[in-house]
Design goal:
Order of helices and strands: HEEHEH
Structural class: alpha+beta
Oligomer: single chain
Distance between the termini: 26 Å
Strand content: 5-15%
Helix content: 25-40%
Length: 102
């Protein structure tokens, strides 16, 4: 996990002002994946969406490798109502940003 020091409750409270923070979180996640020998292209970066989160502080799940069970994998399945990939959150914020800042 990558956890920001500044308190952000969840993906619902992230604003365009948090965009650069999310990019820094992504960079740290990719560094960690490389450091531990994971294939970055096959990895997942994302967040659980309330009310399906257990901690009310934004934290980025950094998932490299294969899951040992289908149940565990389903917790981090893109496109479900309980999980949002980092790329989805960044794209959502980009639609709210002035064109010159994207």
């Amino acid at each position: 996990m990558v956890i920001p020091a500044r308190h952000i409750i969840s993906v619902h409270t992230v604003t365009v002002d948090d965009y650069d923070l999310l990019l820094r979180m992504k960079a740290k996640a990719l560094d960690l994946l490389k450091q531990f020998g994971h294939n970055v292209e096959a990895s997942r970066l994302g967040f659980h969406i309330p009310p399906f989160n257990t901690v009310n502080h934004l934290h980025l799940h950094v998932l490299g490798g294969k899951f040992k069970s289908a149940l565990r994998e389903s917790k981090y399945e893109p496109g479900k109502i309980y999980y949002m990939e980092l790329s989805q959150l960044l794209a959502k914020l980009e639609t709210k940003m002035p064109t010159e800042k994207r």
